[in-house]
Amino acid sequence: MAKICFSMSGEGRGHATRVRALADMLRPRHEISLYAPGDAHELLAPAYAGTEVQVHHIPCMRFHYADSGRLDILRTGWHGAGYLLQLPALVRKLEHQLRDTAPDLAVVDFEPALPRAARRLGIPYISLDHQHFLLVNDLSDLPGWLRRRAALMGLVVRMYHGGMARTVVSSFYRPPLKPSASDAIQTGVILRPLVLNARRERRGHLAVYLRKFSGGHVIQALRELDVPCRVYGLGCLPAEGPLVYKDVSEEDFVEDLATCEALVCTAGNQLVGEALYLGKPVFAIPEPSNHEQYINAWFLAREGTGEWEEMHSVTARRLASFLDQLDIYRTRIDPERYNGNSIALSVIEELTGVGR
């Protein structure tokens, strides 16, 4: 048995979902502790309450959005500056905790404090996230405007941390690796047991996942489409004809995802990968100014397993055109290609020194 600690970004649910899936697979054999900020702590703390898995709250940098849904650069930058001022103290605090607990390995999902503390103590750590595709993959096929954005975002990713024992990129798409990053490991998304065990059916509805600031224009298009929809992310609102609004519940959402005709969602890597694993074509709607999601959406369309559209340009006609092509998209989906569990676990187990 080894001691393994995880940290993750606190923005959105994808990072926490990935870490929870790994922690659940590892906890029968290893001692697990989690350092979780923001949205991740809200998801993980109640999930592991009363268990042997320790969940520690840490601060994080948060993104702020205007009412229009666009990233608010000024507010995000102001908050980020405050976080950077606190980062040295946070690293010292984590260093003290790690010295007491003496983990054998740290696994980092796009969080900057734990790897700095681990490096000071000589604890090996793995980078296991999606964002490092910006550094290790050859993105020369992207349109020019996205290549430029990818280069800028890559500078930010590079500042998060370095010196990891392994770089594992978890993604639903796999562009070629750069020659300089030939030792990076590419794998599919990390799938939670609920998704792995879900029974795939088709019951005639669409699964929809949106953020609260991104609902208005898309919801109007869905109303006009007049197709049954199970809508998550906007709260439990009164039903509107074919639109049924539901609170975010892992069990309900995965069931609705596994039994839908297709998924309509913001273009986060984790959720898109889960849908494709379940054989569901995806209509992706990148969040305005979130260029990582634009890149995800571009690769989704290039692989022919779905389509994407700007949030302000979504129309019922555009959605209907997507639905007309579902049979074609389904033939291009190879579910097991999107399952990254075995590769990620093998890398972690290798570096703990404990055989699987």
Please provide a brief summary of the model:
The chain is of the alpha/beta class and 356 residues long.
What is the CATH class designation of the largest domain? Alpha Beta
Beta-strand percentage? 15-25%
Shape: globular
Major sheet: size, sense and barrel closure? Answer: 7 strands, parallel
Helix-strand category = alpha/beta
Element-level helix/strand string: EHEHEHEHEHHEEHEHEEHEHEHEHHH
**Count of alpha/pi helices:** 14
Could you walk me through the main structural features you see in this protein, from its secondary elements to its overall organization?
The protein is of the alpha/beta class. It has 2 domains: about 5-190 and about 340-350, Rossmann fold (3-Layer(aba) Sandwich), CATH 3.40.50.2000; about 195-340, Glycogen Phosphorylase B (Rossmann fold). The chain has 14 helices and 13 strands. The strands form 2 sheets. The chain has a 7-stranded parallel β-sheet, sandwiched between helices. It has a 6-stranded parallel β-sheet with strand order 10-9-8-11-12-13, with helices on both faces. Helix 6 (about 145-160) crosses helix 11 (about 290-300). The longest helix is centred in the first third of the chain and has 29 residues, at about 75-100. It is globular, with a radius of gyration of 20 Å. The mean pLDDT is about 90.
Spell out the key features of this protein.
356 residues, 2 domains, 7-stranded parallel β-sheet, 6-stranded parallel β-sheet, 14 helices
SSE layout and pairing:
Blueprint: E1 3-8, H1 14-26, E2 31-36, H2 38-47, E3 54-57, H3 73-101, E4 105-109, H4 113-121, E5 125-129, H5 133-136, H6 144-160, E6 166-170, E7 185-187, H7 193-196, E8 206-209, H8 216-225, E9 229-232, E10 243-246, H9 250-258, E11 262-265, H10 269-277, E12 282-284, H11 291-302, E13 306-308, H12 316-324, H13 326-331, H14 341-352
Parallel strand pairs: 1-2, 1-4, 2-3, 4-5, 5-6, 6-7, 8-9, 8-11, 9-10, 11-12, 12-13
